[in-house]
Specification:
Radius of gyration: 26 Å
Number of domains: 3
Largest sheet: 4 strands, antiparallel
Low-confidence stretches: 1-6, 337-348
Distance between the termini: 55 Å
Mean pLDDT: 85
Number of strands: 9
Helix content: 40-55%
CATH class of the largest domain: Mainly Alpha
Strand order of the largest sheet: 1-2-3-4
Order of helices and strands: EEEEHHHHHHHHHEEEEEHHHHHH
Shape: elongated
CATH topology of the largest domain: hpI Integrase, Chain A
CATH superfamily of the largest domain: Intergrase catalytic core
Length: about 375
Amino acid sequence: MADVRRQWGALRKLPSGRYQASYMDPLGARQTAPHTFEDADAARIWLANMRKIVESGEWSPHMADQTPLTFGDYAAQWLDGRTLKPRTRDHYAKLLDSRILPTFRRDPLKAITPSRVRDWHDKQGGDTPTMRAHAYALLRTILNSAVAEERIAANPCRIRGAGAVRRAKQIRPATLGELEQITHAMPDRLRVMVMLAAWCALRFGELAELRRSDIDLAAGIVRIRRGVTWVKGEPIVGTPKSAAGVRDVAIPPHLIPVLERHLDEHTAGGAKALLFPAADGRNYSASALDYHWRRAREAAGRPDLRFHDTRHTGAVLAASTGATLAELMARLGHSSPSMAMRYQHAAADRDKVIAAALSGLAGAE
């Protein structure tokens, strides 16, 4: 974020491209505009007007409270000022527009009380618990920023556990037999996608962005360096979900010949060729996969199984080989503060042992 200091006041260009303006009042406190500006000229006009008020002697310590900052303005400013992945930004914007702003848009920040938050939360209903929890967590995060910036004295979001997502149902991983049935029911060009999802526990966004150069058959490694998400129908390629998502995953040896055949028969030449291209040559989408996946899981008698659950299947299979928690977290590309130190002990050589043991399971079946 660029911070452009001027003779009086300051302009800050936010990651969104909009501008934030602020100035030092006569008492030495920084005052920030209650909203952001589309361009620098608009922000300068606001600063010029505020300077006239200060120089005329009309400014008073209570002036900042005369036009209190509303939650809607602060939320827009908060979102503009965050460096977020496109899908996360889109998710936050949708939560704000659909669940939070209809209630709090015009409320001054200082007027939002714990009882008002609780009333809003109660009215969210329990039919969409995940979205309800996400909305509460976002509201709490925004108001935490307001506390840190000393715009409010305390965060009114005080409902214990309201931001936690409770799993609606227990995931039942696919058995090896079910996995085999699902794989054979998929189109030939997508079978390897299912195998990598299960045996290497890869995310769909990682799979859909795999390219020929990411597969090292000689070393038995698939390199995860990128992922793709879809925002408003457009594929956005970026880094994996977290820093731990950048990883090398050892391929179970029994998949090597299958991958080799896939590269020969279904992957174009060139290092950047996608392993699983859509008909138009772009990244394969989850919606395109869904048609085939639904038919395949029905054939295996598992209508409850989501594609993402194959990753859970992969974690269970890897755990059954005796892999430690640290090794599992490293293989899956998970990250959390409590696990950060354990990642350092996950050795790449041990991952190859896990992969070999996975092939042992396949052979036994």
